[in-house]
Every structure is written in structure tokens, then in C-alpha cells.
């Protein structure tokens, strides 16, 4: 009985063939149904593992910068001193620019004040103050008459003749509008 697959032989060989066939059938049906999804998931996991291993290999041990500060504190002190000196130079340049700007503004204000005073004085004397707004035109041109009619340029022609009247229809040139003929249209 022992050699015929009895209790001493155990369930292994007899269950092995049927179990193997069942396992092949189950695995085959799962792969045929979800094979592409399993393949894509495996590739994604592989890529993720590769990226994580690269990032861990590239990272130095300990905190970045802690080793440098612990090893060379004098380099850090020199760098901070250079940074402070650069900030001080930039602040001095900014202060100098601000002073130049303030001086320029003071000069402009003084010039405006002088112009206002000159305008007020000319108004008090009864003169025209428009000429005094610009300091370049303080002198009155000789030969300028007091006539208020501006002179037109001699080479320009007027746009329309003197006898043009749009309401009369005369003097308008070749373009004129006339109403159409009333009555039935002449057909056929």
C-alpha cells in the first residue's frame, strides 16, 4: 500500500498534477484578462524604484551644508563679511543718488518759484505774462505790432471760395444733389 499512493506517500504527487493544471489555468486566465495592466504596473514600479535609488545615491550623507559649516567656519565668516560690505557699498550709492535727486528737485522748485515771481511782477505792471514763462523769450521782438489778426501763409489757398454757401447749392463745384423725378417709373 505504501507504493500505491496510500497514506504514506501523502497527497503531494496526486494533488500535484491536478493542482499544477489548475494553477496554470488560473494564471493563464488572469494574464489573458489583465496582462497589459500587470505589465504596465511592473514597468512603473521599476522606473519608480530606479529614480528613488538614484536620488538616494546622489544625496550626500547628513544635512547639506552642515559639513561645510562645521569644517570651515572661517570661510563662512569671510563670505558673510563680504556680503555685509557689498550691502554697505550699495546703500552708500543709493544715498548718494537720493542726495543728487533731492538737489535736482530743489533746483527745479527754485526755478518754478522764480518764474511765478516774474509772472506776478509782470501782471502787476500790466504787461502780458505769457512771454515771461520762458526765460529765452524775455526780449520783445522789434516790429511786432499789436494787431490781433494772425497772418496766414501766402502760399496756401483757402479750401473753399468766398461765395460758398451749402444751403443755396451754388458755388459748390461740380458736385450737386438734385431730387429724383416723381411719378411712375418708365417701364417697358
Automatic annotation (TrEMBL):
Instruction: Report the locations given in the UniProt record.
Output: Cytoplasm; Endoplasmic reticulum membrane
Q: What is its main location?
A: cytoplasm
How does the UniProt record describe the way this protein sits in the membrane?
A: Single-pass membrane protein
Q: Which InterPro entries match?
A: Selenoprotein_S
Keywords, comma-separated and alphabetical: Coiled coil, Cytoplasm, Endoplasmic reticulum, Membrane, Selenocysteine, Transmembrane, Transmembrane helix
The residue stretches assigned to a coiled coil in this entry are 87-118
The biological process GO terms on file are: endoplasmic reticulum unfolded protein response; retrograde protein transport, ER to cytosol
Supply the Pfam families for this chain. Answer: Selenoprotein_S
Q: Where is the composition biased (Gly residues)?
A: 160-174
Q: Region Disordered: what ranges?
A: 128-188
GO cellular component term, pick one: Derlin-1 retrotranslocation complex
Top-level taxonomic group:
Eukaryota
Q: Where are the transmembrane segments?
A: 31-49
Query: Does this UniProt record's set of keywords contain DNA damage?
Result: no
Regarding protein family, the annotation reads: Belongs to the selenoprotein S family.
The name this protein carries in UniProt is: SELS protein
Q: Which gene encodes it?
A: Selenos
